Amino acid sequence: MFDGLTGKLGDVFERLKRRGALSESDVQAVMREVRVALLEADVALPVVKEFITKAGEKAVGQEVLRSVTPGQMVVKIVHDQLVEMLGAEPEPVDLNAPAPVPILMVGLQGSGKTTTTGKLARRLTQRDKKKVLMASLDVHRPAAQEQLRILGEQTGVATLPIVAGEQPVSIAKRAMTVGRLQGYDVVMLDTAGRLHVDEALMAEVASVHDLVQPHEVLLVVDAMTGQDAVNVAKAFKERVGVTGIVMTRVDGDARGGAALSMRAVTGCPIKLLGVGEKMDALEDFHPQRIAGRILGMGDVVSLVEKAAETIEKDEAERLAKKMAKGDFDLDDMAAQLRQLRKLGGLGGVMGLLPGIGKMKKQLAGANIDEKQLAHQEAIISSMTKKERKDIKLLNASRRKRIAAGSGTTVQEVNRLLKQYQDMSRVMKQMGKSGMLKGMMGGLM
Ligand code: GDP
């Protein structure tokens, strides 16, 4: 469903030929086209506006990396903005609650709710080895309960025995009791849908919700319905709360924009995609992958990423040289921290040095956590230039000021300084012994 944008944007990016930093007029021209393409892909107007503003701000003045074209650079910026607006990280269905974990499936009739209930139950059973019980609360549509029972039989997932004439809240209550007594890990409740959002539907879903206090409320929407799906999501979110969205019929030829609007307008994470009628046609939602599909320019994106890595490598080499000479200051440490954060782990300078595994661990062990890296960067940037070059200046009152300025504590500032001292001591020793020089061979 995501082919729409690809071809259109390709031409636009081609036209950007000038080197150097991206100019405002170039970026504006491209963003105009991106705007049209997004609207044509069925992205809601306010979402498009926000997208264009943010991507534009990131692009203007951006240095074009060596070895890529300005057009490729913009593709990468547009891609990254797509990823960010799609939620950045995948958010899987969460079962982290006391068993039986209640999952409430909600949505309009025909959205693919029952099918998705079967798919997810099957996956939880087969892949995640969970004991799952499914129950249909749909007493309105004839044969809905029977449909779920048959799906259960096909997929080998247990379903709650059907009791004729029983009302939704009672069925839900019975399902939870059976779930508890018979040791189920998960109880999936498939609620009734309607053709449109109406009060009766919402009231019924709300009363079941109040009773079972579901850990996940998964709203199933049909991607083919585009902007309508977004409105449906808004309505459900306001009335019963939604913890995640499942978009179905992503295998069809719907324009991909609905996914982007959905996430941006409702703020709810898209957790799963339905990609066909078969029981195994269920995918996790990966913002990275979807952004790639919307743009259809995965090659360009990885090209720019590689170019960026080369730049990082140059920077790492510069730092490594400074280290070997023994003049490694807090600015260098900040640069190092930035790299660590970008690489999501230990890399950069240390990664370039062969045979340094043990020290790697020593330096990394404690502080690979993202948040901590960000704190450490903040601490360093709250120091004056002078302080960064000479940490002897950092008396108690200055440390206090730095902690306040960086939103951290004096203890954290002390810890960072200690770490810096440890790092530079190790480096000096290595420099003296010629070890660092030896190891870095070609770099020096
Ligand atoms: P409900 O009324 O919301 O429970 O909808 P159903 O689960 O009965 O699904 C309605 C129809 O949509 C069925 O024919 C399903 O096979 C079909 N369907 C559900 N999910 C998908 C999907 O991801 N892709 C495709 N192509 N069809 C789907």
Automatic annotation (TrEMBL):
Keywords: Cytoplasm, GTP-binding, Hydrolase, Nucleotide-binding, Ribonucleoprotein, RNA-binding, Signal recognition particle. PROSITE patterns: SRP54. It is found in: Cell inner membrane; Cytoplasm. Its main location: membrane. InterPro entries: AAA+_ATPase, P-loop_NTPase, Signal_recog_part_SRP54_M_sf, Signal_recog_particl_SRP54_hlx, Signal_recog_particle_SRP54_M, SRP, SRP54, SRP54_GTPase_dom. It catalyses: GTP + H2O = GDP + phosphate + H(+). GO terms for molecular function: 7S RNA binding; GTP binding; GTPase activity. Its EC number is 3.6.5.4. It is a peripheral membrane protein. Residues 269-282 form the SRP54-type proteins GTP-binding domain. GO terms for cellular component: plasma membrane; signal recognition particle. It is an enzyme of class 3 (hydrolase). Involved in targeting and insertion of nascent membrane proteins into the cytoplasmic membrane. Binds to the hydrophobic signal sequence of the ribosome-nascent chain (RNC) as it emerges from the ribosomes. The SRP-RNC complex is then targeted to the cytoplasmic membrane where it interacts with the SRP receptor FtsY. Interaction with FtsY leads to the transfer of the RNC complex to the Sec translocase for insertion into the membrane, the hydrolysis of GTP by both Ffh and FtsY, and the dissociation of the SRP-FtsY complex into the individual components. Belongs to the GTP-binding SRP family. SRP54 subfamily. Composed of three domains: the N-terminal N domain, which is responsible for interactions with the ribosome, the central G domain, which binds GTP, and the C-terminal M domain, which binds the RNA and the signal sequence of the RNC. Part of the signal recognition particle protein translocation system, which is composed of SRP and FtsY. SRP is a ribonucleoprotein composed of Ffh and a 4.5S RNA molecule. NCBIfam families: ffh. This is Signal recognition particle protein. It comes from Oceanibaculum indicum P24.
